[in-house]
Amino acid sequence: MPAPKSDPDLAPLPSQTYRSAAVVGRKPLHFAFTPDAPARAAIAAHLGLLGLHTLVFKGVFTPQGRGDVVLRADLSAAITQRCTITLAPVPAQISSAIARDYLRDFVEPTALEAELGPEDQEPIPEEFDVAAIAIEELTLSLPLYPRAPGASLEPIVAAPAGSAPLTDAALRPFAGLSSLAQAMKDAPKAAQANSAADEQTQNKEKSPK
User: Fold this and answer.
1) Please, are residues 71 and 94 in contact by the beta-carbon 8 Å criterion?
2) Model confidence over 120-138: pLDDT tens digits?
């Protein structure tokens, strides 16, 4: 999934920050990020969307123990993308539940630990930017290959002059394997039938006339 563009000609992305010191060891902090039309237009431009019609990100930062914080939130959005085949507008609804753990004693995991361990643990920042979190989660939730209704890739047919067309199916690396497997499966049956027919013919030749 492409990251938001950093084109200086684009309008800056919105920001909505809260100091982490206001949460750590204190009370839960409820928030709501609902950007206005200009802010949504800026986000859409950075993400390459045709439109970001609504975006609502609501949740709560809750202190855990003496120094950790957990984030639980919900994101919903209405977007329009380009069809990857026809470039026609494709509307979509996004809905995602977010869970992140911010740890005071966070230790950067090794590559193996990062692959096998939790993916939602981070060090506690000086500020929580809920707008940045919302944009990141929206980016991760976007459909990778939006398609308009009825849009499909046409099969490739190619051939030099005087040759039979070479279809896309014939170019597939495992084309014909299914028919070959079936032929191999049927081979013992055919051999058995031929053996029985030969035996029957030999018996007829040996029988007295």
Assistant:
1) no
2) 789 999 999 999 999 999 9
